[in-house]
Structures are given as C-alpha cells and as structure tokens.
C-alpha cells in the first residue's frame, strides 16, 4: 500500500482524540474511543501507519500506565516493533523496551530513526508528542478524531509552549463517523 499523505520514513505523531481535545479520560483510558456505531470501520491511513512503522517513541507516563494493564493490548501487531521510552527518570530494568534520555529529545528521535532503519517513527502520547512538535522534531501530526466529547482527561495539546505552533492541513478524510486530519508543521 502506498500513501501520498503520510511519509513512509517520517516522524509521525499519531494519536486518537475526542472532539473536545482529549487523548485519554480522567482514568488514563482510551476506551472512550471505542463503542461507536462504526468501531470496526476501515481506515486506510491507520493501515498504512501499521504497515510502515519501524519504531515507536513513547513517554514514560504511557509506559508506567501500561504496566498496570492486566493484559497488554495487542495493538495492530506492534508487539514486534522496537519501542523507545523517553524519560528523565532512571531507566527501569525492562528489556522489552529501549530507553532514551528525556533531556535530549533530538538524540531520542535520532535513536528511534536509526532503529526504524528508513521506516516510519510513530510518536505515542500527548506530552511527548507536544514536546517533540514544539522542538521541531515532528514531520507530520496524524489525528484520528472520534465523534465523542468526554469533558475531562488528558488534553492532547496541553503543553505547546509559549510560542504558537503553526500547522498546515495536508489531508482530511472520513473514517466511519470519525475524521482523519494530517498536518505538517510550518517551518521558518
């Protein structure tokens, strides 16, 4: 499958959000995204990401939360994909993941790109995604907007810094009752 929308070798911040801008509810759950009438709707952009991801880059909070799930979800076959966790705290003894220094975001992205070996690096999580976007280290932002408002939780763009981050819409499409939005940061 080819896409003229998403860069196969890019650093892509891919996340699902509610209409009111939340990436997770107050309990850090993503389940609010499920349960719509078209939960099983095909999404060619998601399929493209999953077919081309070479490495994921997530934050420490997401790592910590996932350690309390009884059964780690099998997300689109990502179990065999290298995963970097970016953190400023000491690295735990967990050899399922690669660890990157949160004080060196540019270095963390470089490590993930090297591990991805020319394939896509997918950023997971709102805090890390916002920080990398603000630092100019994101090529594209792929938002899957779900038709639900949850009112409270983890804001997707809670920390964009003092200066505005300008984005340019490069794609919009419908998937079931939700929408896909792909943006690229305006540079310079």
TrEMBL record:
Residues 11-179 form the Bacterial bifunctional deaminase-reductase C-terminal domain. InterPro entries: DHFR-like_dom_sf, RibDG_C. It comes from the Bacteria. GO terms for molecular function: 5-amino-6-(5-phosphoribosylamino)uracil reductase activity. One of its GO terms (biological process) is riboflavin biosynthetic process. It holds the Pfam family RibD_C. This is Dihydrofolate reductase family protein. It comes from Devosia sediminis.
């Amino acid at each position: 499958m080819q896409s003229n929308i998403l860069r196969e070798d890019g650093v892509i911040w891919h996340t699902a959000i509610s209409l009111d801008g939340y990436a997770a509810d107050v309990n850090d759950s993503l389940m609010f995204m499920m349960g719509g009438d078209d939960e099983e709707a095909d999404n060619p952009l998601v399929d493209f990401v999953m077919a081309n991801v070479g490495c994921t880059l997530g934050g420490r909070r997401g790592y910590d939360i996932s350690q309390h799930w009884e059964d780690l979800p099998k997300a689109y076959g990502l179990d065999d994909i290298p995963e970097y966790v970016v953190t400023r705290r000491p690295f735990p003894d967990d050899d399922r993941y690669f660890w990157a220094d949160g004080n060196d975001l540019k270095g963390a992205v470089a490590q993930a790109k090297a591990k991805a070996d020319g394939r896509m690096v997918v950023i997971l999580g709102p805090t890390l995604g916002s920080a990398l976007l603000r630092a100019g280290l994101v090529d594209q932002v792929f938002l899957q907007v779900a038709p639900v408002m949850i009112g409270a939780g983890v804001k997707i763009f809670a920390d964009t810094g003092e200066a505005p981050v300008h984005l340019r819409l490069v794609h919009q499409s419908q998937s079931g009752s939700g929408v896909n939005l792909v943006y690229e940061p305006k540079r310079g």
